[in-house]
Amino acid sequence: MTTRDIVFTAVGVVTALSALLSVTTKHVVHAALWLLVSLGSLAGAYLVLGQELVGLVQLLVYVGAIVVLVLFALMLTRAPIGPHAEIDTPWWQRAAGAVLGGATTVLLASLLLPLFAGVSADLDTPTTTTPQVAQAIFGTWVWPFELLSVLLLVALIGAFAVSRLVLHRDPAEARPTVPATAAAGDRG
To answer: Disulfide-capable partner of 84 in 69, 80, 104, 158 (CB 3.0 to 4.6 Å)?
Structure first.
């Protein structure tokens, strides 16, 4: 094993563990932060593979935009951030989800691994260069990226508008009501 293999394996383990923690934690902010670690270490995996542009786009788009958008949306909503008994799933649903996830992984591995059985990976001579990847991203796929950015902007504006609607309620509704006997007792 070379140093590149060891670093790639270490980064892959960090990516997989942080992704697992992201979907298993019951604290929403912690899940977003584990997602940040997972996406950041995935960018590190791209760097180890010699795809600097893809790693930089990963950092800019996903770590810099998506996770910030998720954290901003969490700050705007008044949803419970920590574990909450009313929205917690029972153990059997989590077990069924784990079984279904494992079955899907086995199915995909049984379908995809035979396709790559005879392929050898030569990492020293990349088949695609950075200009080719840049041309594919900013040439062919530029409109889906732009549409996604517009969608995220609309979602952000919508979240802000919804949060402002809740904040500007009638001030009379926000005041606590005082029973008539307590109010009369304070005057006398």
So the answer is: 80
By three-state DSSP, how is residue 26 classified?
coil
Nearby residues of 80 by Cβ (< 8 Å), 6 or more positions away? 87
- Burial code of 9-36, b = ≥16 C-beta within 10 A, e = fewer? eebeebbeebbebbeeeeebeebbbbbb
What's the rounded mean pLDDT across residues 125-141? 76
| pLDDT for position 28 | 81
CB atoms within 10 A of CB 58: 20
Using CA atoms, how far apart are residues 95 and 101, in angstroms rounded to an integer?
A: 10
Spatial separation of the C-alpha atoms in residues 9 and 3, rounded to whole Å? 10
Give long-range contacts, CB 8 A cutoff, 24+ apart: 92-101. Answer: none
Q: What is the pLDDT of residue 124?
A: 61
> Rounded CA gap, 67 and 24, in Å?
17
Question: Which amino acid, one-letter code, is at 105?
Answer: T
- Assess contact for 86 and 169: CB atoms under 8 A: no
Q: Match 């199915």 to its residue by tokens.
A: 107
pLDDT per position as a tens digit, 154-165: 887 887 777 766
The two three-digit tokens of residue 131, written as one number: 């200009």
Residue with tokens 């504006």: 157
